[in-house]
Write a structure and sequence with these properties.
Layout (H helix, E strand, L loop, with lengths): L1 H6 L5 H32 L44 H14 L15 H9 L8 H8 L6 H13 L3 H8 L5 H14 L9 H8 L3 H14 L2 E2 L4 E2 L7 E4 L3 E6 L2 E5 L4 E9 L2 E6 L2 E6 L3 E3 L1
Length: 298
């Protein structure tokens, strides 16, 4: 690098003078800027003088062109009345009531985000509420209408155990949608056993009441919630399970010449398909057949 510099043509005396003057002006401006940045930092720290004996910590980053800061957006609140533009915990409570009443898609992908927008306003109107929520309406909406999934699951289990049909129907009527069913059924299946077996809410209720008229009334409650029934099994996205359990002692066929006796309430495996009067299922990578009439879906 030094050799390259010495080989360059040297400027004339007059050129040297102009060049030095230019460099002097540039250096003055640059040092002035850096000095100003350092002085600002010292001022902010409460001292204009460097008493540490160390080299000042200069900020060598040039200012960004056309840089500016946006004013902070005003914070919205959830004071009453709640209306379009409100935001906060109370708005979220209202939205959760709407989702429970109208279904999980009532507010779009945002769901209960605590932001009162056009979708929340439309959902209120659809649910029969005013588009502006005062304190009185808020209390009516949020007190007693939010489903307590854990308490409802426990209530349904107790009704099933003691065969309290009226209590079971009363508890089922609290479930207004597929989402309600999902929440309560998950709690029911996780925390309780019917006949010593964990079951979905559909199977638990229908297996607990023998009378056909009672079963029919229970089925009507589930269809009201939005579940589907094809005459053999119930289905709902996220609810139907492909696992099966025996409801009575039966035979499981290993192949056409060999069958194994299994007791009731035994989880067999994952359903693959139905073939005539038999169901083909998988258990640890192996396929077996069982009579469809001897099993229930979990």
């Amino acid at each position: 690098m030094e050799q390259t510099i010495t080989q360059q043509q040297q400027p004339s005396g007059k050129g040297k003078k102009i060049l030095l003057v230019g460099l002097g002006i540039a250096a003055t401006g640059t040092l002035g800027y850096f000095g100003y940045q350092w002085w600002q930092k010292r001022k902010q720290s409460g001292s204009d003088a460097d008493t540490s004996g160390e080299t000042p910590d200069l900020d060598l980053t040039p200012p960004a062109k056309n840089s500016f800061s946006l004013p902070a957006a005003p914070k919205r609140n959830d004071d009453f009345p709640l209306k379009k533009g409100s935001k906060g915990a109370r708005v979220k409570q209202v939205q959760e009531v709407l989702l429970a009443k109208l279904g999980k898609d009532a507010l779009g992908k945002a769901g209960a985000d605590g932001d009162f927008g056009s979708k929340t306003e439309a959902a209120l109107i659809k649910a029969g509420y005013p588009s502006t929520i005062d304190e009185s309406t808020f209390n009516v909406m949020t007190q007693g209408e939010t489903l307590d999934a854990s308490a409802t699951a426990k209530e349904l289990y107790s009704a099933a155990i003691i065969k309290n049909f009226t209590g079971a129907i009363k508890a089922l009527q609290k479930l207004k949608s597929k989402d309600d069913y999902t929440t309560v059924s998950d709690d029911f299946k996780t925390n309780y056993r019917i006949g010593g077996v964990r079951q979905t809410l559909v199977n638990g209720m229908l297996n607990s009441f023998i009378d056909e008229k009672q079963k029919q009334a229970i089925r009507l409650q589930f269809t009201r919630m939005g579940l589907n029934y094809d005459g053999k099994k119930w289905s709902l996205s996220g609810i139907e399970s492909s696992s099966i359990i025996t409801k009575q002692p039966t035979l499981v066929w290993v192949h056409s010449k060999k069958a194994i006796k299994v007791p009731s309430n035994m989880v067999l495996g994952k359903v693959i398909a139905q073939r005539g009067n038999h169901t083909l299922f998988d258990n640890n990578g192996k396929h077996f057949l069982v009579e469809t009439k001897t099993i229930n879906y979990l």
